[in-house]
Amino acid sequence: MLKKVLMNRILILLVISCMMSCISNEKNKTQEKANTQKSTPEIKPNRYNVAFLIMDGTFNTELTAPYDIFQHTIFRKGIKPMNVFTVADTDEPIVTFEGMRILPDFNYLKDSLPRIDILVVPSAEHHLDSDLENTQMINFVKRVGDEAQFVTSHCDGAFVLAKAGLLNGKVSTTFPSDIDKMRAMFPDLDIRKEVLFVHDGNTITSAGGAKSFEAALYLCEYLYGPEIARSLAGGLVIDWKLEEVPHLILND
């Protein structure tokens, strides 16, 4: 009889343990989902709205370099700072070329986007091939580019701008070893070597890599003046002197 009672108690404990384990697993799944839930950033008024176009294969440096520079404008007094945010064609995390997982702030296919004053197109792994066949993405870049105050690209992001028609009649540049490829793909464009960035009209194209910092600092100097640009550069331990950076400015 005692043995039967003990067995019943053990069985009850096992059932309770299983139930608690299931509840715990469900809570963990709920928490996991909450941790990856998209949270729309606050878009504060009286600021430049700066959208970073991201997708699988985006290169870290071309994204983080200008993002760092522009985001730090909120810590400078007496200027119109920047709201920085990311846009993609998905609500799921994108995975950069180097493996960083980023949850986009806005899905440009379905979300109501804030007005975009500055569009940043970092380079991505397939900007020379399959990304250029993404009609929805190219149309988005064209639509925003036609209305934005500035459109900037880093490294092979220039191929996206070219495909969207935003570089027609303008001078541009791209990643040094891809300049000849860009010239072959877009023979009517004027694409320059031996410069780290080109500002023509409302487009700024850069060689990319670590030189993405220079192109972003130039835009800040253009908007805010050299003192603010040097301050932003100093915060990232960059010795910023525009006159020492090979560049080209046309029709600004």
Note down, in words, how this protein is organized:
- With 252 residues, this protein is of the alpha/beta class.
- The protein has one domain (48-250): Rossmann fold, CATH 3.40.50.
- It is 38% helix and 17% strand.
- The chain has helices at residues 2-35, 60-71, 135-147, 157-163, 179-185, 212-224, 226-235, and strands at 48-53, 82-88, 94-95, 101-102, 106-107, 118-121, 150-154, 171-172, 190-191, 197-200, 203-206, 247-250.
- The strands form 3 sheets. It has an 8-stranded mixed β-sheet with strand order 5-2-1-6-7-11-10-12, sandwiched between helices.
- Strand 6, helix 3 (135-147) and strand 7 form a beta-alpha-beta unit.
- The longest helix is centred in the N-terminal third of the chain and has 34 residues, at 2-35.
Q: Encode the helix/strand succession as letters.
A: HEHEEEEEHEHEHEEEHHE
CATH class type: Alpha Beta
Adjacency order of strands in the biggest sheet: 5-2-1-6-7-11-10-12
CATH architectural name? 3-Layer(aba) Sandwich
Q: What is the overall pLDDT average?
A: 90
Helix and strand composition category: alpha/beta
